[in-house]
């Protein structure tokens, strides 16, 4: 089933709205937020704006020395805490320490991720993109749900991608154990999972006054592309042969500030009161794919498989079984 709310709201914002336009006039004093990957790319911009609204932002970081350097003057060093999404013991330690230090959590933003990387196995033989982008974030989210439930109007935002349109969950071979590894299918699957976790989270938490949203931030050139060669970005249409942004990229790609805007809109907008369990893009709730022009469906709109409540519940149960195995 697809939520009846999966339809644009005419928010008044647009694809090139800057982050500070979203947070203008917002007061998050005494609010506590966690932003994974909050020290690089759009995560850094998300952190910057949340701090500007008065929120206390905790940054779990795999590379704490890089985080300290990038966040100098924005987040104090004691709020940067070591955590590796690819190491479940590390995730568990982070959540235990957080719960010991703070009585509540107002905002959880699952922003970190890896993209189109070479085949790597971590954990229990898991494919790394699914493991980092979904399983690690799933454990983090699940462990923090009680801290959010104690806090009415808390919000969870999970960053997906237009790449979710490449594939739904590959139920018969999630970890590419039977079929050859395809880095883009693996990434697309992980980003579908990043959407579905928000859909099921919302179903489980809405009665506690807590909402969940999935977000496509838009096309942005950030360190996420570090595994891609120039030739591949040319083939994807993101760059021209000189290494400069292509015409398509100039028209559709966003700055990091613009890329953070939809996350911040979901996290702070009063217009979303009573709404959740939806996929958002360009500072509004996204259209379904069948409502988008055929030529733009690769980049805009949400595939039904990424917002289907039955798929979301199934993925939640399957992931719990992976963690228990």
Q: Helical percent range?
A: 25-40%
Subunit arrangement of the protein: single chain
- Overall geometry comes to globular
Strands ordered across the widest β-sheet: 3-2-1-4-7-8-9-10
Order of secondary-structure elements:
HEHEHEHEEEHEHEHHHEEH
Q: Radius of gyration in whole Å, from Cα?
A: 18 Å
Distance between the termini: 29 Å
Number of domains: 2
Beta-strand percentage range: 5-15%
The CATH topology assignment of the largest domain is: Rossmann fold
Number of helices: 10
Overall mean confidence score, pLDDT: 91
CATH architecture verdict of the largest domain: 3-Layer(aba) Sandwich
Report the structural category. alpha/beta
**Can you summarize the main beta sheet?**
8 strands, mixed
Runs with pLDDT <50, length 5+?
222-227
Layout: helices, strands, pairs:
Layout: H1 19-23, E1 32-35, H2 41-52, E2 56-61, H3 64-70, E3 80-82, H4 88-101, E4 107-110, E5 121-122, E6 126-127, H5 128-149, E7 155-159, H6 183-205, E8 211-216, H7 230-235, H8 247-252, H9 256-268, E9 278-281, E10 284-285, H10 309-324
Parallel strand pairs: 1-2, 1-4, 2-3, 4-7, 7-8, 8-9
Antiparallel strand pairs: 5-6, 9-10
Helix pairs in contact: 2-9, 4-5, 5-6, 6-10
